[in-house]
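Consider the tokenized backbone below.
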């Protein structure tokens, strides 16, 4: 009893004794005074006794009954509360996800992400702990769930692949306020296409769990260690369960457990490596009778209850935060893919616009000034796709900066050599020059556009390597043989053939007098000019003036 309450009790007892003595003496004198008025004396005495009884009752209630009621109320735990900081962070993530989802054009994908965000909110509101049983197909996961539930809830047998889909059951543990949802998953490391699909489901359920029960039936193999480590890296708490402990003698069991604890050091707590026998093997007694031992899963139940009592709130909060973050990452990835497709359509459109502008320009060199003017408008439109308000002046600055980079890196000369070799045109020299100019302009515009996409994808930042590294990477990606082959085929259709028609019209040549393009013998590749000039408003300004 607290010291303050003890002192109050002593003072109260002394006060009551003093009052009793005083009352007896007062009642005795009062009785003599009221002897001539018997009825009035009886009423006064009854009132005094009533007040004294009330005082004694209040004393007993305060010192004996009230503490018992407070202890009973303290046993009734309040509803579990999750870490408020993590809840707020998850809520902010979900709100950001909804804003991102609103930008997704695919209606089916949009509704799926919205549904998953609502599921995360509902899980947080319900406060249920999701425990997932994870492991190989023959480790005894279903037997473990059966033993935990105390009744048969799934098929148990030797063949792998028994659990086809994730099955969830409700479990209540003494001393744990939250309700537990325990999910039996398909086995991992199963052979065949069906086994691979079941493993994908198991891994997805594991990443959504608040707590993992990782079941083994022997020492930990590398193929089992890898998913356990991966799940730990994303923040999943695991209990490693060595099942079928009845198959080992005491010394071997201790050796296997010690080896397991050493293998998982750093990713699983040492106290979370537990040996059980979920479905012990029957054995024959000396009398000839077959004995079926009861499942021994109490070590797991005790550890599971201890972890959930101590860490249940944090496990739930961490998982809610993780799921909201993963959903946000998926939404950003989908939006990035959507924007990339839109931006690539813009690049494809402008590359042929640039080819048309250059191919009708009667100059013996690639006119990068005209290409840069086309690229400026392309920059503006790509910026809009990524939500960046770029005006034409800023677009021109970016386009001219990239044009200088293309020249300084030798990309222009390399592109001309690459495309003149690929085209192999056997037509008049004037057409050859104009065709190479137009196709090269389209190719350079493509590299510029792809580079600008990377610039806007990274929030208008060229990265640590700057514009040079981005341009070089895009040039290497767009010079592969398979791409050049398809690009040249499209260029012939969109640039070369229209030029042929123009030449024919100008020279009034009968189409019947010219053999088809594909039947002509190829000529030697056209060599790129040794010097590439950039046309500007001044005819005398050359590359040296840009550098």
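A designed sequence for it:
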């Amino acid at each position: 009893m607290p010291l303050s309450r003890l002192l109050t009790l002593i003072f109260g007892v002394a006060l009551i004794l003093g009052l009793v003595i005083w009352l007896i003496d007062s009642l005795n004198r009062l009785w003599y005074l009221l002897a001539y008025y018997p009825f009035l004396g009886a009423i006064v005495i009854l009132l005094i006794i009533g007040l004294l009884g009330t005082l004694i009752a209040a004393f007993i209630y305060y010192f004996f009954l009230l503490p018992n009621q407070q202890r009973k109320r303290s046993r009734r735990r309040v509803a579990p509360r999750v870490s408020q900081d993590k809840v707020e962070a998850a809520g902010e993530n979900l709100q950001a996800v909804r804003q991102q989802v609103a930008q997704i054009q695919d209606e089916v994908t949009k509704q799926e992400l919205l549904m998953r965000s609502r599921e995360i909110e509902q899980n947080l509101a319900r406060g249920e702990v999701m425990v997932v049983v994870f492991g190989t197909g023959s480790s005894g996961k279903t037997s473990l769930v059966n033993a935990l539930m105390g009744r048969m809830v799934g098929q148990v047998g030797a063949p792998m692949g028994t659990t086809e889909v994730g099955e969830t059951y409700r479990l209540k543990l003494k001393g744990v306020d939250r309700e537990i949802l325990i999910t039996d998953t398909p086995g991992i490391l199963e052979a065949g296409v069906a086994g691979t699909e079941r493993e994908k489901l198991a891994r997805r359920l594991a990443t959504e769990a608040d707590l993992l029960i990782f079941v083994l039936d022997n020492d930990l193999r590398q193929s089992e260690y890898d998913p356990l480590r991966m799940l730990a890296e994303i923040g999943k708490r695991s209990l490693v369960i060595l099942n079928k402990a009845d198959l080992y003698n005491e010394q071997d069991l201790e050796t296997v457990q010690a080896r397991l604890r050493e293998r998982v050091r750093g990713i699983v707590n040492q106290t979370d490596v537990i040996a059980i026998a979920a479905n012990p093997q029957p054995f024959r007694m000396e009398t000839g009778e077959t004995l079926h031992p009861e499942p021994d899963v109490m070590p797991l139940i005790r550890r599971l209850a201890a972890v959930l009592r101590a860490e249940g709130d944090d496990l739930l909060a961490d998982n809610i935060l993780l799921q909201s973050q993963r959903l946000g990452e998926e939404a950003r990835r989908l939006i990035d893919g959507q924007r990339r497709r839109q931006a690539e359509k813009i690049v494809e459109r402008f590359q042929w616009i640039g080819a048309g502008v250059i191919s009708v320009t009667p100059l013996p060199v690639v006119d990068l000034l005209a290409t840069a003017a086309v690229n400026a408008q392309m920059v503006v439109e790509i910026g809009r796709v990524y939500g960046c308000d770029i005006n034409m002046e800023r677009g021109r600055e970016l386009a001219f900066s990239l044009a200088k980079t293309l020249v300084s890196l030798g990309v222009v000369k390399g592109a001309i050599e690459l495309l003149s070799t690929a085209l192999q045109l056997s037509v008049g020299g004037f057409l050859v020059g104009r065709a190479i100019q137009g196709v090269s302009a389209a190719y350079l515009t493509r590299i510029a556009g792809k580079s600008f996409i990377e610039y806007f994808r990274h929030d208008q930042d060229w990265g640590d390597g700057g514009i040079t590294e981005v341009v070089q990477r895009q040039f290497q990606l767009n010079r592969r043989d398979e791409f050049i082959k398809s690009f040249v085929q499209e260029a012939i259709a969109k640039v070369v053939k229209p030029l042929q028609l123009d030449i024919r019209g100008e020279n009034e040549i009968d189409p019947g007098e010219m053999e088809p393009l594909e039947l002509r013998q190829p000529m030697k590749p056209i060599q790129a000019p040794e010097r590439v000039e950039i046309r500007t408003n001044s005819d005398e300004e050359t590359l040296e003036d840009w550098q």
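The longest helix spans residues 298-359.
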